[in-house]
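Notebook, bench 3.
Goal today: get a predicted structure for REXO5 exonuclease from Leucopsar rothschildi so we can plan the truncation constructs. The sequence was checked against the plasmid map this morning, with no discrepancies at the termini. Length recorded as 735 residues. Pasting the sequence as submitted so the record is complete.
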Amino acid sequence: QEKSCHLSAALLGEDSEISQDQLFELLKYAALGKCHNAAQPSWCRIYHQSHLAGVVVIVLHEMSQLHFYRFYLQFKHLRKVFQHRFTLATSANFPVSLYGEETNLKPQNTPQGLTSTSSECITKSSDLQYDPIIRRYGGRKQGLTSYTLTLEEQKKNGYPIEGSPRSKGYISTECDQQRTDSSPLFGLDCEMCLTAKGNEVTRVSLVDAQGQCLLNELVKPESRVLNYCTRFSGVTKKMLLPVKTRLSDIQTRLKKMLPHDAVLVGHSLNFDLQALEMIHPSVIDTSLLFARNEGRKFKLKFLAKAVLGKEIQCEQKLGHDPTEDARAALELAQFFIEQGPTKVAELNLEMLLTAEKLAEVSQNKAALQPKGCGFQEQLNEPPPLSKPCFLDCLQVTGQKPLLLGRQGLDSSGLCQSNLSTSNKQILQRALEDVPLSKFSIIQFSLGPEYLGSHLHAGLYEKVRSKLTDMLTIYAGPFEENFCVKSVKKEFGRCGPIQSLTVVTETFQPYVCIQYEVLEAAQLAVESLNGAEVAGSCIKVQRPVTAAMLDCNVLIKELELDVENEGVIYVAGLKNSLTETDLQEEFSQLKDLETLFLPKDLQSGKHRNCCFLKFQKSQSAVDALEAINGWTMKGSELRSRNALAPGHLWRWIWQMNHSKGKQGKHILYEKMEQLSDSEQDLRKKVKKLDHHIKKLYRSLQNNTLCIVLFPGVNSTHGSQSGLGLMGIKDEGRSAC
């Protein structure tokens, strides 16, 4: 009997923001599986991966979480089929980034007569304010502590962290975080091979601040070697035969060699520390230090040449020299610290990279093979990479990914197509070609006329305005001298209040309350409308505006959202209760799977509400009945079905606390432009949803399908992306 694949992901709450690396982690395991030694992703789990029929990634170009919730009712298929949803950290062009760190091959606003000489690539000082390095660090020269990664940055970029489940069993260097601007720098680099366990270290190099080599050791892997990765590592089977040094020996030596305030420097150092299975608190990562837009990274080889004037990782050599790489990363960090951000920005590395890439493309035009409205990229021998990219891993196994998209979407020029290519043509091609490929990426777009930053700004303001209205209720009338404190206490039992103001323009006073969560506002409308509060029988309602006329429809659809199945909202908790306390109190509820206790993202304090996710929908229904009227620690609880999926908590909080940066006349102008085109946009979105539905229905059973709204970066700010995923089964595909 054929086994059915299924997907499990505990994405309720603030931990549901997924980085591009974590997404690749999932795609790698789904495409390669255990037989190619890919590891289960840390944030979700695929059961019976070997039975997957294929992987299909649908990318909605230049669309964000904002688009999904603005056109929530139009995305009928997406919200009813894909049970797992997550916020996606804004990243560069997704299909191109699969090819490795350098993704921007085609110049943007390139001056005529560009050459690769550095004198012609210096940026004018007036343009520096837009440089990502200046935006991140400012223009002033600072000490090295300003460039070490914070704990949050380390988490975001996949560094081993003390206490993290992913770092279980890792060894700490036992260095503290008492670093100063005088702390010693050490360059570190490792080479790895592929074993039955995964990536294991085969060579380690450590250099001091003067570039002197302190450690350059071959290391024998613990598990059976499947691929020595000699092209990258330079390590062969013959070299490792006499080696006795093991990983534990290297860990011990590094602990002894590093002083308590040591700062490690490396390029994508997270991979090295993961392979070493070591935790170190103070790091400078040169792949992040030399910041680029949209999360892209420069290669170490390029930076060494452009910044230091040094050639490393030469093709004539067999593999990389880790001592050379460690020294290059160290010198890059030292250059950055000594010269300061302004001097580095003035190098105009983006322009230098563009010139270099244009030269490469002109030398080898045969690298790109156009095929109709899409392409099937076949890489016989990819160029050397400091870290193997995702598609490189697929190529090793003989898999040839399919990529289809519209011309102009791919800033690298990798996706070639006809000027007339439409979403309909792409869909038709996908229906023909996807069944022939194990791994496919399909790009759809609303079209350039709907992707301008001015429209994005208007869209953002409309969503923020509607969200504010949905979080707001008006209650009254009250007596002239009513007790505001008792009103706030009563309405506070429905959930966390952001603001309460007394409305005095009316004959009798009313209150305007804005909540922090949608469920609280809805609970107030449902439970307090017609109730007696502060000695008055009151009416509770939301603001009446044109945008709110479909509010009840939206609330109903949110309740029916597949991601809210089995999730309930509970309010009226005492702020002193911890997550452990609540786990204990709710332990008697049957089939309780996850508890999420929201907190203020500035103060870190827990709010007086929580979300409970149950394994079965009926258990959630039973829990609702049991909890309403339940008293916990002297406080009466109120509950209802969840409305906003867990990943929305952080997003709603950020929108709720955002301040408009534009002048009102500019904003109204943008909103007017949006209103003119929004009716057409709704039709486009509805059609797009229909295309995805048609493609999804054509997929084989047991196909992993992921839909990505990659996020938007514009002059008006960034918007996080959104991911929806699920493994197709016949039951759900009938929706």
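The CA atoms of residues 600 and 606 lie 6 Å apart. The radius of gyration is 28 Å.
Flagging this for group meeting.
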